[in-house]
């Protein structure tokens, strides 16, 4: 006999029509499975009879003052007596009669289990076509690309996890992005996780859904972008820097070896335009380094292990040394141009090449300044100032 304790947590806001159905199904399912359990309804400020209906059905009600889907869960789950937690919505769109596969996976040692509605049955009218064919697939693809979660339905609301996993995730968001944060944290902390087929039914609420397609879709995407520095900063930053460096290199070779080649089409002034992608890209990279450091501090350290390992080896003095080297290189280039201009000697005497060198020198000095100040900001954020 299974002697473990399970708690089913249901967030609710004005769900008097359906919350009793959900509580009754959940309690009956646990009795049928022969497991000890309880149901907690995390009420998020209902003004109808939700609390009375939930209590009458046998649930323990936790009143949560802070508004939001995530807030209801964050403040409701700590009241659970069970070592295993199952969560789902209060509108009866997920049937708590179907919790057996979640319990089975918990018993097998999985720390985090998420349902996949696309592998289960989606009742006609249960999921808007925009969510089914665009929103959820796109967000799931981004989740897997950014965080290597390896799941097929990032927005499924029926999930299960251990109490230890919940505490390990250190969830902080209050809105709908809570669902995204949970998956990111589960993947980032190397939990043993899996997904199982999950059915979705038409909700039985008598009011509009709490989920707003565009607002909450953006909040999901925004949260992923905030905590994926590799894709938000490093990829576009490296593309821009590479474009600027390659453009300068190609034009410098042309100006050195065959300055008349395509002179009427690719004029010398275009050389300086390469400063734009180079310097913008380098600035994005510096923001990315700081963002990754913030992610590291806020327990997303495993979101990109390679970048995190680089941050672990960060030393302020080393970066200041890099800044000094690049600054010296830029100053020496300018000195070379000044000396050769007055003496009329030197390897580079062409006005075209002199212009190219001055642009490179300016770029190098600006880059060295960025390195210098990025190092100090990073050092303060990492609290390694001595």
Would you mind describing this structure in some detail?
The longest helix has 32 residues, at 351-382. The chain has 2 domains: 5-226, Alpha-Beta Complex (Spore Coat Polysaccharide Biosynthesis Protein SpsA, Chain A); 229-382, no CATH class. With 386 residues, the chain is α/β, with parallel strands linked by helices. It is built from 14 helices and 7 strands. Helices cover 56% and strands 10% of the residues. The termini are far apart. A 7-stranded mixed beta sheet has the order 3-2-1-4-6-5-7. Strand 1, helix 1 and strand 2 form a beta-alpha-beta unit. It has helices at residues 19-33, 50-57, 69-76, 100-107, 129-147, 163-169, 178-188, 213-226, 229-257, 270-273, 275-300, 305-312, 316-343, 351-382, and strands at 5-12, 36-43, 60-63, 84-87, 112-116, 159-162, 193-197. 39% of the residues are buried. It is elongated and about 95 Å long.
Observed structural traits:
single chain; 386 residues; alpha/beta; Spore Coat Polysaccharide Biosynthesis Protein SpsA, Chain A; seven-stranded mixed sheet; 56% helix; 10% strand; elongated
Number of strands: 7
DSSP strand (E) fraction?
5-15%
Q: Largest beta sheet: what is the strand line-up?
A: 3-2-1-4-6-5-7
Low-confidence stretches: none
**What fold name stands as the CATH topology of the largest domain?**
Spore Coat Polysaccharide Biosynthesis Protein SpsA, Chain A
- What gyration radius follows from the Cα positions, in whole Å? 29 Å
Q: What number of domains?
A: 2
User: Quaternary arrangement of the chains shown?
Assistant: single chain
CATH homologous superfamily placement of the largest domain = Spore Coat Polysaccharide Biosynthesis Protein SpsA, Chain A
Mean pLDDT: 87
H/E series: EHEHEHEHEHEHHEHHHHHHH
State the CATH architecture of the largest domain: Alpha-Beta Complex
CATH C-level of the largest domain: Alpha Beta
Proportion in helices: 55-70%
Distance N terminus to C terminus? 58 Å
Structural class: alpha/beta
- How many distinct helices? 14
C-alpha geometry: elongated
Biggest sheet record: 7 strands, mixed
